[in-house]
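Handout, section B. The chain below has 408 residues.
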Amino acid sequence: MKNNPFLSDTFNSVWSEHFNRKRSPIKFKSFSDVRFVKSKFPYLYYNIGKNITNGMSYHINTEGKDHNGKVFLIYDVPTYFEIMSHDIPSLKLIKVPQYKGFLSDLRQHSSYDDFVKDQFKSNSRYKFRRNQERLETCFNIDYSIYHGHIEKSIYDTVMIGFKALLSKRFDALRKENYILMKWDYYYDLIYEMLLEKSAVLIVISNNNEPIGVSLSFLSDRIMFYAITSFDTDFYRFNLGHTTIIKLLNWCYDNGYEIYDFSKGEYEYKNRWMNTQYTYENHILYDSKSLIATLIAKLVSLKYRLKQSLRDHNFNEKYVKLKFFLRGNKEISKIDYRVETADMPEPSNNMQEIDLDSKDYSFLKSVIYDRLYKNPISVDELKVYFILIEGKATYFVSGTKQDYKIIVN
């Protein structure tokens, strides 16, 4: 693969600044492209980026002799990457299967229309169009794709929105999120990668406020789907599918051959992918060294054990436990019911509210769900608060059918 973004000088530099105490990556003549970090474990080195890349590749330099007595761990090598075999008898390789990976091979079709017709039945394609049409009917929607130069002020606005969306989503899931914990790193990395055109950001905005942001990294022919988040209030409009449609069209327009969904199994990936692969950890070691051989076997055992725990969903339980141990609280859910109702006569007890106010943000998902079913512009809605028999009641007017939300 040419121009792997996770081997670039920019990626090496930013990652080292944040995770390697600003020390320079270690270069070995035995590897012509990968840069390494010295592990705390003796004789062991691992690739820059460790396990937060979306796919590592490497090339062995057969003239290199500086691998003697050492072990090299290269994380997350996709099985579909063309890793050339080498002719160094003493440098042995252990492959340890890890996560499942998913991709759309776009080479099988000449256009997005051909791809989607082959991938989905007409009913599904209709639903994708309907979701986007209803989104654009109900809200003031803009789509932006950033690849190359981006004004710093615009970048800051997008990243503030991106972080807020991720925080809201993972608080709702009651999980910790590694990306948020390392946000300064991603903030620095994404900007530099955008400028050198090895990343692309797509932003869906409502009234110029991001409601969906998706980051992908780019090689010469592969788009790596990396980080994405959407405002959960808009869940009925399936922003994720709309984003994928936009990005796939961009891939075809710009000559990209593979759309890689990366690791992690989700329903939407199973729907869009046409090829499944496996991420492997590659452990290369000097087989002439007894110590290096023993370390390589131990490292292999470690990652086989970790994968076994993943297969039993231990990692999901661990992530949720960390969320609570850090003092995060479960988000309380609003108990409500929706009933058809005529608007009452205006009174002093009746107050019009601003749906964009934080005090009433809990209403958005309910009202947006009804908008999806009866699409009109949200700007046409009027929402009123009134206390009836001690219960907070919200009347929504302007839809094709007025209704009330009663909070129990």
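Note. The chain has a mean pLDDT of 92. Compare this with the example in section A.
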